[in-house]
Design goal:
The protein has 2 helices and 5 strands, in the order E-E-H-E-H-E-E. The chain has one domain: TusA-like domain (Translation Initiation Factor IF3, 2-Layer Sandwich), CATH 3.30.110.40. By secondary structure, the chain is of the alpha/beta class. A hairpin with a 2-residue loop joins strand 4 (65-71) and strand 5 (74-80). The chain has a 5-stranded mixed β-sheet with strand order 1-4-5-3-2. The longest helix is centred in the last third of the chain and has 12 residues, at 51-62. The chain is 27% helix and 34% strand.
């Protein structure tokens, strides 16, 4: 588990954390994950450079799948909630 350079094909939810600073992107993701069923695909959009470390680490610790990519000056995380 953890983040890789690849991305998942399906996505059900978008969490827009652009413009938010640490720790808000992770907190926003955590809140949304609490509201969705296992197996849900989420895309997190972030601009805080620290999110590149924080979100993959959070996913690894919680057992969620995560893939990271760069989009312009932002980051995109494709996450699948653990079963």
């Amino acid at each position: 588990m953890g983040c890789t350079g690849s991305s998942f094909l399906a996505e059900d939810e978008i969490v827009d954390a652009r413009g938010l600073k640490c720790p808000l992107p992770v907190l926003k993701l955590e809140k949304r994950l609490d509201q969705v069923p296992a197996g849900t695909h989420l895309t997190v959009l972030a601009t805080d450079p620290i999110a590149k470390v924080d979100i993959p680490l959070f996913c690894l610790q919680q057992g969620h799948q995560c893939a990271t990519s760069t989009e312009g000056d932002g980051l995109r995380f494709s996450i699948v909630k653990k079963s």
